[in-house]
Design goal:
Number of strands of chain B: 10
CATH class of the largest domain in chain A: Alpha Beta
Strand order of the largest sheet of chain B: 1-8-9-10-6-7-2
Shape of chain A: globular
Helix content of chain B: 25-40%
Order of helices and strands of chain B: HEHEHEEEHEEHHHEHHEEHHHH
Number of domains of chain B: 1
Distance between the termini of chain A: 20 Å
Radius of gyration of chain A: 20 Å
Strand content of chain B: 15-25%
CATH superfamily of the largest domain in chain A: Nucleotide-binding domain of ferredoxin-NADP reductase (FNR) module
Number of helices of chain B: 13
Oligomer: heterodimer
Strand order of the largest sheet of chain A: 10-9-8-11-12
Order of helices and strands of chain A: EEEEEHEEEHEEHEHEEEHEHEE
Mean pLDDT of chain B: 94
Number of domains of chain A: 3
Largest sheet of chain B: 7 strands, antiparallel
Shape of chain B: globular
Mean pLDDT of chain A: 94
Chain lengths: 315, 350
């Protein structure tokens, strides 16, 4: 992963919990352009802890003058969003990776249906700009608890294809009815809470949509959990993964060389072979197949955890 | 200009030739005395100065003549260049990548002047000076991919990334080792690799696909592939097999050194920014056995590799017929001395 230091040039609250951060090249150079749905990994040096979190880009994919992300403060998360909200100010420099897209638009679609719940609006903010530029047919449906919580509202185009729903106003998104009205050849993309993703998938499947037309934002933040111990077969090292640390972060802290890119269980780069396992693996990734999970032979250290007596990795 | 361009042909009278400098910088593909498939992928645009490895898109003495040969092939068979409708954005990405790379690597040969989307492109070796509007295909004589790949040596496959695979949805393919864009268009990675022997059981493609789908912007990769071709012919396509297939039977013990060519593909992999597509240029280099053997290390090594290659690989690469003659010819350059590591022509220890 190529990482470069970028300057934070704007920090702007969008709602009480969501803040927009803008990054620019310190010398004003143009940054690599990207495709709608791409994310960047931002390094967050919080005291002794170095976290690398992935955030969807919300700025215009065709605008290389800066990258923008919108981050929701998660009180029960591992601490990355709290650090960004409380410690990062305009003028700071943070290391940022190149854009990587694990939820690209399928440009063969006859129409693009984007369904967002809450902070899940972020990848779609860039995608609607790309769709508008390409002149492609789309609809965006965006549900948030209230107008005050809808960070994406001010960043969306004033466009009849954009539909918003605020549950505080008693206005709920009717997923089955939205799906029913779509023409043949539509692709649907969902980003938001698991139950929204499941509802869209179930609804589209019931209507007979091919699985290849149903997409969702697959990568997730590493969940916190119980502390656990890991043994490395090749180097003989033993290390402890803290409750708010991912296994990947623990490996990096122990200076184990391991490839990664999305850090969210979707890209497959950090796949690691297990030498022995006595206990229960908590597979939180979207990469391994059911068979691979059942075999206890591989783990994705970026998001997955372990509870039990012995976990030895082939590292 | 720093490069002297050959006036040569790649068909009919085959006047193609390699200068002594071209032989020294030839991308010899064998880093050891035997060969088996591997995911031999490494980072691109780092390599010894003057080799094809330290530039993004190599321009060499064959450039002008190769572009002329491409135009003939395309004139005879327009299906060598295809781009499915959703790939136009990727075509613009590729155009930008090739233009900016050529300007950076060869500032004396190419110029690009940009003012927003108003672009002017100057290609001195081909005598081109065009102004156009970026992202507006109506301002170019061809689609963006065709326009730029008519000015770039080698083949180009442009792969769409979706549904957990890569899809061959666009390309310019005129100097291929016996595969067809018209046949492969729209296929995914697994489908178009189905005919390759042995590699599937080695899980080569599973690992290669995982790697390729993670290629990131600004971090291109490369690998070398190879086969054998009789005569310096760029267009060894299945469509024209009737033209080049019979030429395999013209090789004799007397002419094998001149007529039998090692055909090397420098394959590179590039993530494209706006489209998230993967550009897969396949650059073809040709050198005959006689020229290659002028480098003592390569003469020794090539003899050992071809002699010991598993039969099914020789068969797949299409030179089973002439293999005994090739091995016999090369044996004169193999004194049994140890060869040094790596692909470069450094002297072997004796």
């Amino acid at each position: 992963m190529m990482i470069q230091p970028l300057q934070v040039t704007a920090v702007e609250p969008l709602t009480s919990r969501i803040t927009r951060f803008r990054f620019e090249h310190p010398d004003g150079d143009t940054l690599p352009l990207f495709s709608g749905g791409a994310h960047i990994v931002v390094e967050l040096p919080d005291g002794d802890t170095l976290r690398r979190n992935a955030y969807s880009l919300i700025s215009d994919p065709m605008d290389g003058s800066g990258y923008e992300i919108a981050v929701q403060r998660e009180e029960s998360g591992r601490g990355g969003s709290r650090f960004l909200h409380s410690s990062v100010k305009a003028g700071d420099t943070l290391n940022v990776g190149v854009p990587l897209n694990l939820m690209a638009l399928n440009l063969r679609a006859k129409k693009h249906l984007l369904i967002a719940g809450g902070i899940g609006i972020t990848p779609f903010l860039a995608q609607v700009k790309q769709l508008a530029l390409l002149g492609l047919s789309y609809e965006l449906h965006y549900a948030a608890p209230s107008r005050e919580d809808a960070a994406g509202l001010a960043l969306l185009p004033d466009d009849p294809n954009v539909h918003v729903y605020f549950s505080a106003d008693g206005n709920r998104m009717d997923v089955p009815s939205i799906l029913e009205q779509q023409p043949l050849g539509t692709h649907v993309y969902t980003c938001g809470p698991e139950r929204l993703i499941a509802a869209v998938k179930d609804g589209a499947t019931t209507l007979g949509w091919p699985a290849s037309t149903i997409h969702s934002e697959a990568f997730t933040a590493p969940p916190p959990g119980q502390s656990f111990q890991v043994t490395l077969a090749k180097s003989g090292k033993t290390l402890v993964v803290g409750p708010h640390q991912s296994l990947l972060e623990a490996l990096e802290a122990a200076e184990v060389d391991i490839a990664w890119s999305c850090r969210g269980g979707a890209c497959g780069q950090c796949e690691t072979a297990i030498s022995s396992c006595q206990g229960k693996l908590e597979h939180n990734d979207h990469w391994l197949s059911e068979d691979e999970r059942a075999a206890n032979s591989k783990i994705m250290p970026c998001v997955s955890r372990f509870v039990g007596q012995d976990l030895t990795l082939d590292l | 200009m720093t490069i002297r361009f050959n006036d040569e042909t790649f068909r009919d009278d085959y006047t193609h030739f390699n200068s002594p400098e071209a032989i020294q910088r030839f991308p010899f593909p064998f880093d050891r005395d035997d060969y088996m498939y591997s995911v031999n992928i490494e980072s691109h645009t780092s390599g010894p100065k003057g080799t094809p490895f330290d530039v993004a898109f190599d321009v060499d003495e064959h450039y002008v003549s190769e572009m002329r040969d491409l135009a003939i092939t395309l004139e005879q068979d327009p299906k060598r260049c295809q781009s499915l409708p959703h790939m136009e954005l990727a075509g613009w990405d590729l155009l930008e990548l090739i233009m900016t790379s050529k300007v950076a690597d060869y500032p004396d040969l190419f110029e690009l002047h940009r003012d927003g989307n108003a672009w002017r492109w100057v290609n001195k070796p081909l005598g081109i000076d065009d102004s156009f509007t970026f992202l507006d295909a109506s301002t170019l004589p061809y689609g963006p991919m065709e326009y730029i790949t008519r000015q770039a040596q080698g083949d180009f496959a442009v792969l769409d990334q979706r549904d957990g695979s890569l899809w061959m949805d666009a390309g310019m393919v005129t100097c291929q080792a016996d595969w067809s864009l018209d046949f492969n268009i729209g296929m995914n990675f697994t489908e178009w690799h189905a005919p390759v022997p042995k590699a599937h059981e080695m899980r080569i493609f599973e690992r290669a696909l995982k790697f390729l789908m993670n290629v990131q912007q600004g971090a291109p990769s490369r690998r070398l592939n190879w086969t054998m071709t009789v005569n310096p012919r760029l267009d060894t396509s299945p469509e024209n097999y009737h033209l080049w297939g019979p030429e395999k039977r013209t090789v004799t013990p007397e002419n094998v050194g001149q007529k039998q060519y090692l055909r090397v593909e420098l394959q590179t992999f590039w993530r494209l920014p706006r489209s998230n597509a993967l550009a897969f240029p396949i650059r073809c280099y040709l050198a005959n056995l006689q020229d290659l053997s002028s480098v003592p290390k390569w003469g020794r090594r090539l003899h050992r590799v071809i002699r010991d290659l598993p039969d099914e690989l020789a068969d797949y690469k299409g030179f089973t017929l002439n293999r005994p003659m090739i091995v016999e010819y090369l044996s004169q350059f193999d004194d049994g001395a140890e060869t040094s590591l790596g692909i470069y022509p450094a002297e072997d220890q004796s």
